[in-house]
Every structure is written in structure tokens, then in C-alpha cells.
């Protein structure tokens, strides 16, 4: 099981592409790479999940943590290009009602 993370920055906005599987084994790496991006005011983090083949509750927890930290710092988390399976997971958990989820990547989001 493997997860790959590519990051690009444009001032206070980060564009992150994640690929692979996000589970109990890979979520700590994702958390380690992503949570530092949430520090500071008014950050916007766009995460492209197009190439994520699997996401479990541990992975969801990483995104919830990011969401909370960004909200606290007046920032925003945007999740883009989720597969139908991932969209369903965010819908079932109710996270799609509080997080910004879009079918299309924006500038720099790959």
C-alpha cells in the first residue's frame, strides 16, 4: 500500500495531488505532509483525489483534521475530482455537507 503526494504553492494557496491508497498505514504520511500546510491565516488548500483508489476512516480523519485547522485559521479546504466511490463515502459520512467538494480541478490542481 502506497500513497504519493505532490504539492505546489502559489502564495497562500496550495495545490496537492494525492494518488494511491489512504488507509491506516498511509494516513500518517498524508497527515505529516498535509497538516503543516494548514498553519497560518487564510490558507486555501485544494486537494486533487482523482488518483486515490481507496480511502478509509483513518484517511477521512486526516481531511477532517485539516478542515478543522483551516477553519480555525480562516482558511479553506477544497477537495476535487473525487471518484464516485469517494464521493459516496463523503456523502454517507455527511462530510460533503460541510466540506467543499467539486468535480473539476481549478487552476494548478492538475
Summarize the structure.
This protein is α/β, with parallel strands linked by helices and 110 residues long.
Question: What can you tell me about this protein's structure?
Answer:
It is built from 3 helices and 5 strands; from the N terminus they run ββαβαβαβ. α2 links the parallel β3 and β4. The mean pLDDT is 93. The chain has one domain: STAS domain (Transcription Regulator spoIIAA). It is 31% helix and 35% strand.
Task: Name the descriptors.
110 residues; alpha/beta; Transcription Regulator spoIIAA; five-stranded mixed sheet; 31% helix
Q: Which strand order spans the largest sheet, edge to edge or round the barrel? A: 1-2-3-4-5
What separation lies between the terminal Cα atoms?
23 Å
| CATH structural architecture | 2-Layer Sandwich
Average predicted confidence as pLDDT: 93
CATH level 3 topology: Transcription Regulator spoIIAA
Give the class-level CATH name: Alpha Beta
How are the elements arranged and paired?
Blueprint lengths: L2 E8 L2 E10 L4 H8 L9 E12 L1 H16 L3 E5 L3 H10 L6 E3 L8
Parallel strand pairs: 2-3, 3-4, 4-5
Antiparallel strand pairs: 1-2
